[in-house]
Design brief:
alpha/beta; Rossmann fold; Dihydrodipicolinate Reductase, domain 2; 2 domains; six-stranded mixed beta sheet; 12 strands; binds L-homoserine
Length: about 325
């Protein structure tokens, strides 16, 4: 089989899109991806950039803009094989990413996204559409950025996951850690925002919705039938400093029959109790290995770009064109 020359559309050229562009260019030679190109970029602010050059980011910073285009129209007429969807999050409607991904999969294009909206709320429909069109719908970046999470299960053929537990939101874990140090909740939240950890709307972090989306995405991938809108979700607003000091963390849990997000006091000796600051961690309880863990950053520009690179290489390793 000859490897074609895969072409990539980057849709959404904010922090994650630019991070991916930079990381892809930095790593493509060492990964042997010289035949792969980012052939176009579509962004609400910057417009439609065809064949972006290496200096595109500095040009855009200098004020250059391109003709605006409706993203769905751009997808419909694009010859890209892979669409990287990096637009903003909406955990109520999943839009506009949902429409973009639907259009891309419907056109027979592989999709990579770090957007939790479509992955948590529209998973089954989009996954079915991907299968029908014989393409992949990849979403590593939605759970713990580039840190291995559900994707490490791909290394474990036949393994059965009994349950999943995790600390999957850096902002809340950071806030709880600062509360252990004596800060009050609001000051700690402001710090987390200033450091760029919190979502644009911190409600998603502190009220547990971001964590909820992540445990739903893992459940979806494991074939468990939990629904984001019916999930029991409790955030950290009511956690006291004393509870934080006693090892209370915002925990996401799922098994086949149950799922929740809530603050829980973790026992001394529980590995998840030792996850500090903005670090994330996940525990899979399995049939053959017992408990396995992964820990690392769950957000950030290059950290999320890594997830898209991981998804890209996974798609290319299964390239059937
Ligand atoms: N705001 C999230 C966090 C990162 O604090 O972990 C993106 O999911």
């Amino acid at each position: 089989m000859t490897m074609a020359k895969p072409r990539i559309m980057v849709l959404g050229f904010g922090t994650v899109g630019q991070g991916f562009f930079e990381l892809f260019n930095m790593k493509k030679h060492s990964l042997g991806l010289n035949n792969v190109t980012i052939s176009e970029v579509v962004d609400a602010k910057f417009g439609h950039i065809i064949e972006p050059g290496d200096s595109i980011i500095s040009e855009l910073k200098g004020g250059k803009t391109y003709e605006k285009i409706d993203p769905v129209k751009a997808i419909m007429k694009s010859d890209a094989d892979i669409v990287c969807e990096f637009t903003w999050l909406d955990l109520k409607t999943a839009e506009p990413a949902y429409s973009h991904i639907k259009a891309a999969l419907g056109q027979g294009k592989h999709v990579i996204t770090s957007n939790k909206g479509p992955s948590a709320l529209k998973f089954r429909e989009l996954n079915d559409l991907a299968r029908k069109n014989n393409v992949q719908f990849k979403m590593k970046g939605t759970v713990m950025a580039g840190t291995p999470s559900f994707n490490l299960l791909e290394l474990l053929p036949g393994i059965e996951v009994k349950s999943v537990r995790g600390i999957m939101n850096g902002t809340t874990n950071y806030i709880l850690g600062r509360m252990v140090g004596g800060k009050d909740f609001n000051d700690a939240l402001k710090e987390a925002q200033a450091l760029g950890y919190a979502e644009a709307d911190p409600t998603n972090d502190v009220d547990g919705f971001d964590t909820a989306a992540k445990i739903i995405i893992i459940s979806n991938l494991l074939g468990w039938n939990h629904d984001f809108n019916n999930l029991k979700i409790e955030g950290i607003r009511k956690v006291t400093r004393e509870q934080a000091a006693n090892g209370t963390k915002l925990v996401a849990y799922a098994d086949r029959n149950h799922a929740f997000v809530k603050p829980l006091q973790l026992q001394t000796g529980d590995i998840l109790r030792e996850v500090n600051g903005v670090m994330n961690a996940v525990e899979f309880e399995t049939d053959t290995l017992g408990k396995i863990y992964s820990m690392g950053p769950g957000a950030g520009k290059i950290e999320t770009a890594q997830s898209a690179l991981t998804d890209l290489v996974s798609i290319l390793n299964n390239w059937h064109k």
